[in-house]
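Good morning,

Attaching, inline, the backbone tokens for the sequence recovery test we're adding to the shared suite. The designed sequence is right after.
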């Protein structure tokens, strides 16, 4: 049997063939208790590829486009309706002139594809949105019923932080900050997860200790109504 130091040494050397190494790796703290790679945590597929910069060209276009939109609306104080109208005017003028110019230079007119939204796509989006909304309603109901004090405090803290940020940033800026976080934090975490996870593990242990003290001194002393016993089904 290898002791703890031998297990650590075997992991550092890259000896992944041993059962001891696999057992050691399975016990390593992972953020949010995840057991899947970061790519799977982000949902997998093309969206995860974009956020993790698997395709640098597509990721650069998406991130650059979002940056341009934020710059136009926040820095240049452009209005959304004005931007849409100006964009449509420029596009239609260019396509109109191009289509008519082809008759004089004996070239084929531009091929403009027919764009339409399929019914199946709308149903898939609606189904996905329905699941997320129902999950949010379930969490809100669980908190309102007072069944999970820890989740209640977490949600209240998150809403309070958002309310403070809302006094300094508008919705578009907050959305852009969230997008920047999605394009930077996951890819950096995937690169340095072996260093981040142990550090976060130590922080979580300390937080749990402090929460246990807070629970013993404050939360456990809060009076609560009597619990109703479930009727046994015969």
């Amino acid at each position: 049997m290898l002791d703890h130091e031998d297990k650590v040494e075997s992991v550092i050397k890259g000896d992944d063939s041993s059962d001891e190494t696999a057992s050691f790796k399975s016990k390593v703290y992972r953020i949010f208790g995840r057991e899947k790679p970061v790519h799977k945590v982000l949902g997998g597929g093309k969206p995860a590829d974009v956020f993790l910069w698997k395709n640098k060209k597509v990721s650069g276009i998406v991130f650059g486009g979002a940056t341009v939109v934020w710059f136009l609306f926040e820095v240049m104080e452009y209005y959304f309706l004005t931007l849409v109208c100006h964009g449509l005017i420029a596009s239609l003028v260019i396509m109109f002139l191009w289509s008519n110019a082809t008759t004089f230079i004996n070239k084929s007119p531009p091929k403009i594809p027919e764009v339409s939204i399929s019914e199946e796509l709308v149903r898939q989006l609606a189904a996905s949105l329905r699941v997320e909304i129902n999950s949010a309603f379930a969490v809100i109901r669980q908190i309102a019923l007072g069944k999970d004090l820890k989740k209640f405090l977490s949600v209240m803290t998150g809403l309070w932080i958002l309310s403070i940020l809302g006094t300094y940033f508008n919705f578009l800026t907050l959305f852009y900050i969230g997008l920047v976080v999605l394009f930077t934090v996951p890819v950096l975490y995937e690169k340095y997860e072996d260093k981040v996870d142990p550090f976060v593990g130590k922080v979580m242990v300390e937080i749990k200790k402090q929460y246990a003290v807070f629970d013993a001194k404050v939360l456990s002393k809060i009076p609560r109504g009597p619990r109703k016993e479930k009727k046994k089904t015969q």
